[in-house]
């Protein structure tokens, strides 16, 4: 870690609709777009339609903005997997708390944001889901950067499974789990 990243402060804050323009911009960044089918077709209207109900609390998914040294640099969402039956049947642990994330700002890649983001999220997730025993993430099998990040913060790689995509394709995902008790205290 270089001296610059030693001073890095990463936090999470609740996402608002005002953050959706940043989300749209991040979704179009090449390092992010490759993991979203039809990313080039995303518009502010499609982003609002998909994520607005989550922000408004109408869908049981919590949305957060990742901040690095006070700047919005990415997003994180979490949810009880069993609240989303279409995903619960795909995962080995439907009662786990799922987490998805991205660092959208290119200037903040490879600077320790991801590691600090997930470590901060452990506390946020425990506060929001105090009865949870397992956290679960499932990046695309080709997303080696994300898979390494999960291993670095203590997740264990597990089952590989196919997930239907909105464009009609299928993505092979790699499940990663971590026992909540291992990250508390």
TrEMBL record:
Keyword Oxidoreductase annotated: no
Matching PANTHER family, A to Z? LYSINE N-ACYLTRANSFERASE C17G9.06C-RELATED
> What positions does the domain N-acetyltransferase occupy?
10-179
Transmembrane region positions? none
Any one GO molecular-function label of the UniProt entry:
N-acyltransferase activity
| Protein's recorded name | GNAT family N-acetyltransferase
* High-level lineage: Bacteria, Bacillati, Actinomycetota, Actinomycetes, Propionibacteriales
Q: What InterPro entries does the entry give? A: Acyl_CoA_acyltransferase (IPR016181), GNAT_dom (IPR000182)
Give the keywords, sorted. Antibiotic resistance, Transferase
The record ties this protein, via SUPFAM superfamilies, to: Acyl-CoA N-acyltransferases (Nat)
GO BP of this protein:
response to antibiotic
């Amino acid at each position: 870690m270089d001296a610059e990243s030693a001073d890095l402060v990463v936090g999470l804050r609740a996402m608002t609709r005002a953050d959706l323009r940043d989300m749209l911009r991040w979704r179009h960044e090449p390092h992010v777009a490759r993991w979203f089918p039809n990313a080039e077709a995303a518009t502010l209207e499609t982003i609002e339609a998909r994520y607005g109900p989550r922000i408004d609390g109408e869908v049981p998914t919590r949305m957060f903005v990742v901040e690095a040294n006070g700047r919005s640099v990415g997003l994180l969402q979490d949810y009880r997997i069993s609240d989303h039956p279409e995903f619960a049947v795909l995962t080995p642990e439907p009662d786990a708390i799922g987490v998805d994330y991205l660092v959208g700002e290119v200037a903040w890649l490879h600077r320790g944001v991801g590691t600090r983001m997930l470590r901060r999220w452990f506390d946020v997730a425990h506060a929001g889901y105090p009865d949870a025993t397992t956290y679960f993430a499932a990046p695309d099998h080709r997303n080696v950067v994300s898979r390494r990040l999960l291993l670095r913060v203590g997740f264990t790689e597990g089952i590989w499974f196919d997930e239907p995509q909105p464009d009609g394709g299928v993505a092979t995902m790699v499940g990663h789990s971590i026992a909540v008790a291992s990250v508390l205290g």
